[in-house]
Design brief:
The protein has 368 residues and is α+β, with helices and mostly antiparallel strands. It folds into two domains: 204 residues, 3-Layer(aba) Sandwich (CV3147-like fold), CATH 3.40.1610.10; 132 residues, CV3147-like. Helices cover 31% and strands 28% of the residues. It is built from twelve helices and 18 strands. Strands 16-15-14-13-12-18-17 form a seven-stranded antiparallel sheet. Strands 3, 4, 7, 8, 9 and 10 form a six-stranded mixed sheet that branches. A three-stranded mixed sheet has the order 1-2-5. The two termini are 38 Å apart.
């Protein structure tokens, strides 16, 4: 059943989206502020449709920001650029969008469709193409289940708009779009994987905005009740399609290697355990890819690896990790739609050049 998101609910959504961003996806606090500003001068709320409410023949446009998260933090995104990207693809295809949907639910990109909706009144669909955040455009359930990514549009802060059409070749689309984004200053607003309502029903991760809001609410309430935020998160996740959560490690960040390369933030972080001689190493490309404790793999993509402040449960992004932070590192199982053979081909370990096979989190770390 459809529902509305108001300004008062944006903090919970942003907090939960930061967790699902697995270290990347951009800072949702910035997106929250932009959406709140747009709502204050417009409708005051955004309508959200469940996937099943979308007509089969609806024209649905997935929207997002593209670029390294460090760039977005330094170069504030344009409020107008997401709408410009939408209008560019509408002109190119000769169709008017009936709804928008997040490309990814993690981080800043959870807010982009709401920013568009707050400005022009389109509904937002409660779903996305990742159930988290991934660094490359072809890494979507949309792609895994047969929706072509192009034609896509990009819009820059200076009013530029670009159309890229590579037919069914999503990898080449990513390569070209990454180069264009770098030449737009390292950040752009995009549309891609335009599709019908029927295709949304066949390919999307369902209910992901709702899950993000539940996570954010659980963390807020845990803090108010002085509960362990990891316990609150585990209870919340258990009632969703993600289902499984494991606390992988607790400790202090003792080293972070990070650089912006080829349009991505790449690096690794090391966390030292409290009171024992044990270390966890996290490898990331915008988002966390692997978590290894003392040489043993604990979690790998597409399952989620999240670094949280140990006291508040607030997510810490890859660009915000610093020496001395006291953190809990958790793993969250990806929903079943993200674990099929087709999905693993799109964004499993091999898609990142990793040699480890995918083993579900709950099998690597069984309970009891």
């Amino acid at each position: 059943m459809s529902f509305v998101i108001t300004r008062d609910e944006l903090p919970d959504l942003a907090r939960g989206a930061a967790v699902l961003g697995t270290g990347g996806g951009g800072d949702p606090r910035l997106g929250r502020a932009m959406v709140a500003h747009a709502l204050s001068g417009g409708p005051g709320e955004v309508t959200v449709l469940t996937v099943d409410e979308v007509p089969d023949d609806a024209f649905v446009v997935p929207v997002a920001g593209m670029g390294a998260p460090t760039i977005s933090n330094e170069k504030i995104p344009s409020v107008e650029a997401p709408v410009a990207a939408l209008r560019a693809i509408e002109r190119h295809l000769g169709r008017t969008a009936d709804a928008v949907i997040p490309v990814e639910v993690g981080g800043m990109n959870s807010m982009v469709p709401l920013l568009i909706a707050a400005q022009i009144g389109l509904p937002v669909i409660d779903g996305d193409g990742m159930g988290r955040a991934f660094p490359e455009l072809q890494m979507k359930t949309f792609a895994a289940y047969g929706v072509p990514g192009s034609p896509m549009s990009l819009a820059g802060v200076a009013g530029e708009s670009i159309i890229i059409d590579t037919g069914p070749d999503n990898h080449r689309m990513e390569w070209l779009a990454r180069g264009v984004t770098m030449r737009l200053g390292g950040a752009a607003q995009i549309t891609e994987f335009t599709m019908t309502g029927k295709q949304v029903k066949d390919t999307a991760v369902r209910g992901s905005l709702t899950v993000a809001m539940r996570i954010g609410r659980a963390l807020r309430e845990a803090r108010a009740e002085h509960r362990d935020p990891m316990d609150a998160l585990a209870e919340t996740i258990a009632a969703t399609d993600y289902e499984h959560l494991r606390v992988l490690f607790r400790g202090k960040v003792i080293d972070v290697e990070r650089l912006t390369d080829g349009g991505f933030v790449r690096g690794r972080a090391t966390v030292s355990a409290f009171g024992e001689d044990s270390r966890l190493e996290i490898v990331f490309q915008n988002e966390h890819l692997t978590a290894t404790r003392d040489g043993r793999m604990l979690c790998t993509v597409p399952d989620l690896i999240c670094v949280l402040d140990i006291e508040s449960g607030e997510a810490i992004t890859t660009e915000a990790m610093r020496y001395g932070q006291r953190v809990a590192v958790i793993g969250i199982a990806a929903p079943p739609v993200m674990r099929t053979e087709a999905a693993l081909g799109a964004f499993g370990p091999a898609a990142f050049g990793l040699t480890d096979d995918f083993v579900p989190l709950e099998e690597r770390l069984p309970v009891g």
